């Protein structure tokens, strides 16, 4: 039977692929956003500035700090890439999400397993770059290649995961080709592209992309359901008739676009201690907008349940970009 030998989790923020001199550009987008979820409420940028003024976050938003944080982030990315290469799995199952790059309001699956032979990470056209939110085009090299790259997938494992999930009463969506758009099939979203580019360094390892709709109402699966889903995926992998070695990775998070260090620490402690009750006790309001990607880690912890692999938090690096507390808290973790 297949063996799960390694786990990983890494943020995929634009800041990880943007020079620190340009981090402020994402704050322009933050100011335009009229509804930032934070601790159960929803706030404008100016309301957040008022709410968080006691934290003196402005002191953490200058180029000296950005440079220091960027150096740490880059060192951790390299460490994760090196550790992944050392672990040398045959297949990587990726627990990720879409941000309206593929799935639209006309159809958004709650959970989807991709069972195509290959997946394409497309180059971004100059025209598409023009239309991007401030600060994204600068970072696009970290998620998308200069020319399209096709990566191999593993339909045999994906099909086994789908049939196991269905038997276990998870009526999962399935796709063997990402939905078509203007020039399609569409590119694999940035949540996955970041791993291909920055951790796998475009090496053609076989992957199985699994999507959870973490972001978008009305059908975001709950943290409890995500954890159970992950566990079922783990049982599927371990019952696959193959002698291949499998790794699993979460992509995204932790709290953003408003950083909440208290939330992050609660969830990181719960993951480290395998405290399922604490994970599912967290209110769903904690997992909205970018912070919803924390659910990819909950799914991954589910997959790794019972493997004996132990979580190691290599680093937790909150990267603030405004006095409103907007930014992205970076995590770099492994299970080995
Ligand atoms: Fe994301």
What does this structure look like?
It is built from ten helices and twelve strands. The strands form three sheets. It has an eight-stranded mixed beta sheet with strand order 8-5-9-4-10-1-12-11, with helices on both faces. Strands 2-3 form a two-stranded antiparallel ribbon. A two-stranded antiparallel ribbon has the order 6-7. It has 336 residues and is an alpha/beta fold. The chain has a single domain, classed as Protocatechuate 4,5-dioxygenase, Chain B. A hairpin with a 6-residue loop joins strand 11 (311-320) and strand 12. The radius of gyration is 19 Å and the shape is globular. It has helices at 25-32, 45-51, 63-87, 126-130, 155-167, 190-199, 223-238, 261-272, 276-281, 294-304, and strands at 3-10, 36-38, 41-43, 91-96, 111-114, 118-121, 149-152, 173-175, 206-212, 245-251, 311-320, 327-335. Bound molecules: fe (ii) ion (FE2). Residues 12, 99, 191, 252, 293 line the site of fe (ii) ion.
Short description:
The protein is an alpha/beta fold and 336 residues long.
Question: What attributes characterize this protein structure?
Answer:
single chain; Protocatechuate 4,5-dioxygenase, Chain B; alpha/beta; globular; 34% helix; 20% strand; binds fe (ii) ion; 10 helices; 8-stranded mixed β-sheet
């Amino acid at each position: 039977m297949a063996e799960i030998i390694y786990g990983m989790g890494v943020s995929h923020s634009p800041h990880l692929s943007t020079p620190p001199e340009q981090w402020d550009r994402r704050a322009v987008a933050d100011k335009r956003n009229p509804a930032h979820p934070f601790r159960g409420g929803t706030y404008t940028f100016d309301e957040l500035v008022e709410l968080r003024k006691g934290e003196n976050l402005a002191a953490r938003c200058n180029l000296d700090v950005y440079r220091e944080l960027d150096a740490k982030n880059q060192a951790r990315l390299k460490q994760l890439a090196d550790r992944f290469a050392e672990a040398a799995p045959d297949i990587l199952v990726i627990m990720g999400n879409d941000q309206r790059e593929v799935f639209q309001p006309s159809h958004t699956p709650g959970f989807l397993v991709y069972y195509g032979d290959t997946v394409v990470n497309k180059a971004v056209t100059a025209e598409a770059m023009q239309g991007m939110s401030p600060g994204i085009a600068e970072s696009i090299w970290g998620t998308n290649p200069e020319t399209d790259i096709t990566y191999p997938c593993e339909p045999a494992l994906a099909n086994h995961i789908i049939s196991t999930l269905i038997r276990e009463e998870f009526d999962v969506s399935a796709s063997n080709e990402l939905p078509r758009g203007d020039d399609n099939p569409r590119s694999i979203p940035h949540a996955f592209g970041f791993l291909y580019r920055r951790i796998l360094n475009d090496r053609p390892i076989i992957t199985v992309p699994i999507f959870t709709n973490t972001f978008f109402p009305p059908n975001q699966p709950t943290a409890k359901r995500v954890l159970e889903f992950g566990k079922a995926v783990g049982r599927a992998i371990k019952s696959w008739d193959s002698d291949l070695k499998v790794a699993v990775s979460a992509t995204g998070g932790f709290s953003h676009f408003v950083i909440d260090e208290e939330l992050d620490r609660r969830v990181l402690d719960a993951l480290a201690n395998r405290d399922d009750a604490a994970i599912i006790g967290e209110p769903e309001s904690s997992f909205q907008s970018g912070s919803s990607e924390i659910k990819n880690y909950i799914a991954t912890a589910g997959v790794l349940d019972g493997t004996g692999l132990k979580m190691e938090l290599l680093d937790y690096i909150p990267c603030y970009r405004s006095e409103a507390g907007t930014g992205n808290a970076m995590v770099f973790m492994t299970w080995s």
